[in-house]
Amino acid sequence: MLLFSVLAAAIAPGIALLAYFYWKDRYDAEPLHVVIKLFLAGVLIVLPVMIIQRGLLLWIGDESPVAFSFITSAGVEEFVKWFVLYHIIYNHTEFDEPYDGIVYATAVSLGFATVENVLYAFTEPVTFGMLLARALLPVSGHALFGVFMGYSLGKAKFSAGRAVKLHLALALLTPLFAHGLYDYLMQTIPSEWLWVMVPFMFLLWLRGIRSVNHANARSPFRWVKREEEIKF
């Protein structure tokens, strides 16, 4: 029973956050089976990410918080997520509005974060309070990094010319910077000063919600829905 409770506590935050961002799609909800496919892709990339990170640790070590945060941790994780999204969903027919990038990117990110949370729960001595703290920090952090990636992917998908490459690059660099900064702060701030992560996470959420609203506002389906409401 305790094993099931710990497992549920480790999985629940990722599922809840994915449901939240899925339901924030105001105009044209994505097929659930495609979202689940991307979530499972996030689950599957955990092993190759761990192998690459292990190789980098052996090569460059972990003495430098900057190198570890922005290369070994955030660099590898965000690049692999970006690579999977670009090759699986970017040219998919269901990617038909800017907000779709956010849904699919958060699905991949939260699949990854959920496995990471489960591994932490069963390899470290944890309490439910610690799992709650992880839900508020690393799990929601991964969700927001996914929002930043998906927002730029959505802009790239519906741009033209040089703007496409610019937004594709931002889809990688923006979450990489936010993730790297998060990891750097977690490594370098003394435990008694960890409260400074609260305003940092607040700023991430503020930026994330703004991205959600801007992406929804650019949906080509919003006019269709308005016309349907007027006719009704």
From TrEMBL:
Keywords assigned: Cell membrane, Hydrolase, Membrane, Metalloprotease, Protease, Transmembrane, Transmembrane helix
Protein topology in the membrane: Multi-pass membrane protein
Main location group: membrane
Gene Ontology BP terms: proteolysis
A Gene Ontology cellular-component term: plasma membrane
E.C. no: 3.4.-.-
Gene Ontology MF terms in the entry: metallopeptidase activity
Compartments, record wording: Cell membrane
Tree of life domain: Bacteria
EC class of the enzyme, as a word: hydrolase
Keyword check for Cell membrane: yes
Membrane-spanning intervals of the chain: 6-23, 35-60, 66-89, 101-122, 128-151, 163-181, 193-209
Cited function: Involved in the degradation of specific anti-sigma factors.
Family: Belongs to the protease PrsW family.
Name of the protein described by the UniProt record: Protease PrsW
Organism expressing this protein natively: Cohnella thailandensis
